[in-house]
Amino acid sequence: DLNSYHYNAVIDACARSGSWTMALHTFGVMAQSTLQCNTVTFNATISACEKGGEWEKALQLFQMTAQRQIEPNGTTLNTAMNACGKCGKWQKAVQLLSTTAQGDVESDTITWNTAISACEKGGEWRQALHLLGVMEQSTLKSN
Question: If you write DSSP's letter for every residue of 54-102 in order, what string do you get?
């Protein structure tokens, strides 16, 4: 019998090979089956979208976790933020960082670095510097 492990493995293989469309298709098949999508499913699918430059789809998937009552983790958040940053959508990455303040996902150094990197890619050095200052004032210490 097929289970979520099998679907997650296929989605991950699609992500690794850059086949974001097949990853989304497999995600859709799984979502419409009796199998439950989980955090691993969302992480792999968001990663496929990130690698394919599909920041909007990555963002939609991140937002879908709440609708599906899936608890996102740091990987879920960081990958969605990175998808936005790679496509020059630094504002979206910074908005995602704010979800950590709401307690939805716990931030770590990687999360802050991802947001700062998104600002750097967008040429927003002032925002990157601001985030570094906020990070230093928080309980996190930059690496």
Answer: -HHHHHHHHHHHHHTT----HHHHHHHHHHHHHTT-HHHHHHHHHHHHT
